[in-house]
Write a structure and sequence with these properties.
Layout lengths: L23 H11 L5 E6 L13 E3 L5 E3 L18 E6 L22 H18 L8 E3 H7 L17 E3 L7 E3 H14 L5
Parallel strand pairs: 1-4, 1-5, 2-4
Antiparallel strand pairs: 2-3, 6-7
Helix pairs in contact: 2-4
Length: 200
């Protein structure tokens, strides 16, 4: 079974063909076919530029919040999270080329930082997927790649040369603008959307 290694961005498969925008109808169909087969959602960034979509994920979210469908089924095995791809969905924000982690809260996101629209779109997509697939929106079922990497001992502070720190910290927007754990921010948005009927 193919799994994603803790590899560098250079081995990722960039989409070169026309990739469809995700529609409500397509999402509903994907969810219907994926019920009882998906148990986790992993959140990433591509470490690329805006507009660059990668096939390693089920969904790519561009700078303006547009969501692109890069899968034919939610059960399609994608190489998004090391040792955690089976029964899991990978969602990536198209951003963070040249980002530097430093100590997390003082991360530099470079010329392609995660945008508020991307973060909001990720929260809404997680809410829709979680509701449709009966996945709890908590830190055991909806994780950033950084959170998964910390659990699996290759995240920040591990000394691993290919540390995955995707979405370790993000600016809380439109909140107070401070840097907070990325998983906490996106799960918070997802919980809000889940209570606000995101399918409407």
């Amino acid at each position: 079974m193919p799994i994603k290694s803790k590899r560098s961005i250079t081995t990722m498969q960039m989409q070169t063909s026309s990739t469809p925008l995700l529609t409500a109808a397509a999402l509903a169909e994907l969810i219907a076919l994926g019920r009882n087969r998906i148990s986790q959602i992993y959140l990433h960034w591509t470490a690329g530029r805006y507009g660059q979509l990668y096939d390693d994920y089920h969904f790519n979210i561009d700078a303006d919040g547009s969501v692109y469908q890069t899968c034919t089924q939610l059960t399609q095995l994608k190489s998004h999270t090391w040792h955690r791809n089976t029964g899991a969905i990978g969602i990536a924000l198209c951003c963070a080329h040249g980002a530097l982690p430093h100590n997390g809260k003082d991360a530099e996101f470079g010329q392609y930082p995660p945008t508020p629209r991307q973060i909001d779109a990720a929260g809404k997509l997680v809410a829709q997927l979680a509701l449709g697939l009966a996945i709890p929106i908590d830190r055991w079922n909806v994780l950033t790649h950084c959170e998964a990497a910390l659990i699996d001992d290759y995240g920040p502070y591990s000394g691993d040369a290919e540390t995955r720190w995707d979405l370790w910290y993000l600016h809380d927007s439109p909140g107070d603008g401070l840097m907070k754990p990325g998983g906490q921010i996106i799960r918070g948005k997802a919980l809000w959307y889940a209570k606000s009927s995101p399918f409407a």
